[in-house]
Amino acid sequence: MPLNPSQTRELLDKLEHQPNKKLGQNFLVDGNIVRKSIELAEVSATDRVVEIGPGLGTLSQAILKTGASVWAVERDASLAKHLRENIQPQAPDFHLIEGDCLDSPRAGLDDLSDGYKIVANLPYAVSTPWMEAVLAGPLPSCMVLMLQKEAGDRYSAQHGTKNFGAISIFLQSAYSVTGRHLVAAPCFYPAPKVDSVLLRLELKRDFIRFPENARECVRRIFTQRRKQLGTLCKKDPEAHALAWFESMIKEGISPNIRPEDLALEHWQSFAKRMS
Ligand code: SAM
After folding, report:
1. What pLDDT does residue 1 have?
2. Ligand 1 pocket test: which of 1, 3, 27 has the largest number of ligand atoms within 8 Å of its C-beta?
């Protein structure tokens, strides 16, 4: 069972640790959410699971209990010390590195031949750059992620909505969103001021990965999302986007369309051209 809010406070006092807002330290204190995360990821004893920001080790311990092995990366030195001293000695399958998930998006898991999953209550400030690093591959078969609701809305947005953007395109080209659960603030200590959502993402059979040059171009286009796509493509220094857009006009796409109104499958044709 995870620690409840007062046990969490006691442990933090014992460690003389003040939750760090900048590092998004809102610890999970709700047993149902911890259980649900593991159930949604269908974690089994043979799985290798990457966890970002293990914090006090609540989620890590629940994953380890299934018999799975855990690769985790924690940026906070005092929490990493706690994990090394109090969790690792009893858990040989717990592999921890102290560092930044943007440098180690797979927490040092190098042998990916048998596949892997990701289960994490993410530090909200870095969730999108971290996600982009994961999407560069090799890709996990499944991810169950606690996110700021706003980020979750962008990840799962459909075209024609204000939330649809570069990350929606990269993520949904590789993953189906197969679960979405709102999570209330009291499930964390301290309670965050923003809403949270638990997302389940499942790797598509026919996943498409955007190469870096295509991602860079799509990101640039979405920095001016209210402009017409044709105008934006003309600014592509290498003219790849312009050639792609001209081919779409021939297929009947309006020359006046805005980036957020273009459907996923059309964006995917850009990735294929650039691969
Ligand atoms: N997993 C724990 C839980 O669910 O209770 C803690 C989750 S808390 C939302 C986010 C964790 O990520 C914190 O432990 C924080 O120190 C860590 N963190 C923040 N930024 C990080 C980064 N760039 N790389 C790795 N860990 C980071």
Report:
1. 65
2. 27
